[in-house]
Design goal:
With 685 residues, the protein is α+β, with helices and mostly antiparallel strands. The chain has five domains: 144 residues, Rossmann fold (3-Layer(aba) Sandwich); 161 residues, Topoisomerase I, domain 2, CATH 1.10.460.10; 128 residues, Topoisomerase I, domain 3 (Distorted Sandwich), CATH 2.70.20; 123 residues, Topoisomerase I, domain 4 (Orthogonal Bundle); 81 residues, no CATH class. 40% of the residues lie in helices and 18% in strands. The strands form five sheets. A seven-stranded mixed beta sheet has the order 2-3-4-1-7-8-9, with helices on both faces. Strand 17 and strand 18 form a beta hairpin. Helix 6 runs antiparallel to helix 21. The radius of gyration is 31 Å and the shape is globular.
Length: 685
């Protein structure tokens, strides 16, 4: 009997087939003496559409909501049905004795395989391949230590809960909003609170009123000092600043305190997906989705890094013996000398990096043992690999150490502070440079300078002084880097202290889905990119006022993510979670229906719909911007460029068909026929 291996993507399936000596034997699969390898194309099976339960639900009507099927059905995705048939036929073969699930080792990967198994009625034994890299050795070791398939039943339950909750909440609230306000409005358990963060920040910026403040700096010749009030208080009165200047002008003072401290900064933790997306956005301006795409190629095609969609920044103890081999594999180009330097001593990372308790499904993103060939990488791949490689090397370096000296100089009762540092050991900064977290610090600190040797009681003379006027700054708009941080740490926005503590460590979405959520917000015209910044549109700001309050807050969805994590660990039941989701769905639909808020589209064009005469809306479509009739019962759409010339752009045949189809319809505007004939005449000219 042979084993059937189900991978998630053709590229992964072919790599597994190559290692296991399987070769093309039919369309959509490979076969060898022991194994048959096939693959999904992402998802092959999905949840059924509303009209699969009841044909009447194909039409969106407020009176049909909420939709709460007793049992959720599955269906084959039409676009990839040909590959589903390949997999299903292989599952039916008499010489196939077991299935090996080799989809991505995570919640969504488990769902891909299990839904196919369920719809194809798989009844034979099954096992699980669980690996964190795509190297030949990792694949061989994975097949040598396959896990029992049922061991991942809890993970599958969590995945099903996530999918069904999104269906129930997303489809019901979206239909309710769309029907009630007769506009294309959609909401979701992760998308809406994420949008709310951007909208809230925009409101804070618009409501911000700048305040003037002043700083005072004194030049003492060999160094300068900055005035600081009690607890770092600012000067909000110009007369006060000028008074300080008058009191110190041409005066002498003394150094009253010298404090030197030996300080150290440990290396930053290794990357998880979210942290890597943040850094790529800060340094390169990349959208989170681009980072994930480039990272997938480094993982699947080049096999240079470990599993991308991880939420851990640590490694487990069993990875430690492999670190020297990983360093040898990456010892090329600019990393050769740095890797060899680390290898000169035994590689013994401390508990800061090695912590089994902080690794769930996958450890941090680190280089594999694969030999690095930089010439085979694109420029984007090199840039992303550089971040991962330098962070990995930094983690294996000692702390950055320095002596920090702070001087307090008193002149006529006014205190001035000066600070400098002397580096004693570059440590991890020799490979990575400044910590990104330090770069982003918004704390107002005394600027650093080079300080010579000074002694307590030393007399100094004020050479000159200067006051500078500043304005308080509004909060910055979110970038993808800051938004990812906010999504990851949404618990901080929760007011209830007990709840805030309970959801600590969870966030909006998962590392694997956050980039997709941001892209969806852009695609649906709720937010726009302006350089690195994310701006909410009028549509996005209005949606937050229309969406149910419970759906705007991160509390509800963060609780769900915590409960999904508990289901995956076997600490909670799927049935209890789904019962609550159904209850929440009904309440959310009810709150939208009872809402008295109005919606005003801001994307109205100057072109009237040729079918019903209403002014059309400018919307984003798969083929670019389109004009769409605001009346959903009409549903007419056409390319936006037609709006510039005020013409329909239909072919003569299409125009004639419309005239014939609607000429006898008394409900249409009496101007419709004339409008269509006029358009036909213009087209013929």
């Amino acid at each position: 009997m042979k084993s059937l291996i189900l991978a998630e993507k053709p590229s992964v399936g072919r790599e597994i087939g190559r290692v296991l000596k399987c070769f093309p034997k039919g369309k959509g699969y490979l076969e060898g003496s022991q194994y048959v390898v096939t693959w999904a194309l992402g998802h092959l099976v999905t949840l059924a559409e509303p009209d699969d339960y009841d044909k009447r639900l194909k039409e969106w009507r407020l009176e049909d909501l909420p939709m709460l099927p007793e049992k959720m059905k599955l269906k084959v995705i039409r676009q990839t049905s040909h590959q589903y048939q390949v997999v299903r036929n292989l599952m039916k073969r008499q010489d196939i004795g077991e299935l090996i699930i080799a989809t991505d080792a995570g919640r969504e990967g488990e769902l891909v395989a299990r839904w196919i198994m369920e719809l194809a009625h798989w009844k034979k034994p099954y096992k699980r391949l669980w690996i964190s890299s795509q190297t030949d050795e990792a694949i061989r070791q994975g097949f040598a230590s396959l896990k029992p398939g049922p061991s991942y039943n809890n993970l599958y339950d969590a995945a099903v809960c996530r999918a069904e909750a999104d269906w129930l909440i997303g489809l019901n609230v979206t239909r309710t909003l769309t029907c009630k306000f007769n506009a294309q409005l959609n909401a979701g358990r992760v998308q809406t609170p994420t949008l709310a963060m951007i909208v809230t920040r925009e409101q804070e910026i618009k409501n911000f009123k700048p305040v003037d403040y002043w700083t005072v700096r004194a030049d003492f010749g060999r160094y300068f000092g900055d005035w600081r009030g009690d607890n770092g208080a600012r000067i909000y009165n110009q007369a006060e600043a000028e008074g300080i200047m008058a009191r110190i002008k041409d005066q002498s003072g003394a150094i009253t305190q010298i404090k030197t401290e030996a300080k150290s900064e440990p290396p930053p933790l290794a990357y998880d997906l979210t942290e890597l997306q943040r850094d790529a956005n800060k340094r390169y301006g990349w959208p989170a989705q681009k980072t994930l795409s480039v990272l997938q190629d480094l993982y699947e095609r080049h096999k240079l890094v470990t599993y991308p969609r991880t939420d851990s920044r640590y490694i487990t103890g069993d990875i430690v013996p492999t670190l020297p081999t990983r360093l040898q594999g990456m010892a090329a180009g600019p990393y050769a000398a740095m890797a060899k330097s680390v290898l000169q001593k035994p590689v013994r990372p401390g508990k800061r990096f090695v912590d089994d308790s902080k690794v769930s499904d996958h450890h941090a993103i680190i280089p594999t043992e694969q030999k690095l060939e930089l010439a085979k990488l694109s420029e984007d791949e090199k840039r992303l690999y550089d971040l991962i490689a330098r962070r990995f090397l930094a983690v294996l370096h000692p702390p950055y150490r320095y002596d920090q000296t702070t001087l307090t100089t008193v002149v006529n009762g006014e205190h001035f502070y000066s600070r400098g540092r002397a580096v004693t050991d570059l440590g991890w900064r020799s490979v990575q440079g400044t910590s990104p977290d330090k770069e982003d610090s918004t704390k107002e600190e005394v600027p650093e300078q080079t300080l010579a040797q000074h002694s307590k009681g030393e007399k100094v003379q004020v050479r000159s002084g200067k006051t500078n006027k500043h304005k308080t700054q509004p909060p910055s708009r979110h970038t993808e880097a800051t938004l990812l941080t906010a999504m990851e740490n949404c618990g901080k926005l929760v007011e209830d202290e007990k709840l805030r503590e309970s959801i600590k460590g969870t966030g909006l979405g998962t590392p694997a889905t956050r980039a997709e959520i941001i892209e969806k917000l852009v695609h649906t015209s709720y937010i726009e990119r302006h350089g690195k910044e994310l701006w909410p549109t009028s549509k996005g700001m209005q949606l937050i006022t229309l969406a149910p309050p419970a759906l705007r807050s991160p509390e509800l969805t963060a609780q769900w993510e915590q409960r999904l994590a508990d289901i995956a660990k076997g600490k909670a039941k799927k049935s209890d979670f789904m019962a609550d989701i159904r209850k929440d769905t009904a309440e959310l639909v009810k709150s939208v229906r009872l809402d008295t808020t109005t919606y005003k589209p801001d994307n109205i064009s100057k072109t009237k719909c040729p079918l019903c005469g209403r002014f059309m809306l400018i919307v984003s479509g798969k083929r670019g911007r389109m004009l769409a009739c605001p009346d959903r019962s009409c549903g007419h759409r056409q390319p936006e460029k037609e709006d510039q010339f005020g013409r329909l752009g239909h072919s003569n045949r299409t125009t004639q068909r419309l005239v014939a189809q609607y000429s006898d319809n008394e409900q249409l505007s009496t101007n419709l026929g004339a409008l269509l004939k006029e358009a036909m005449a213009k087209k013929e000219k």
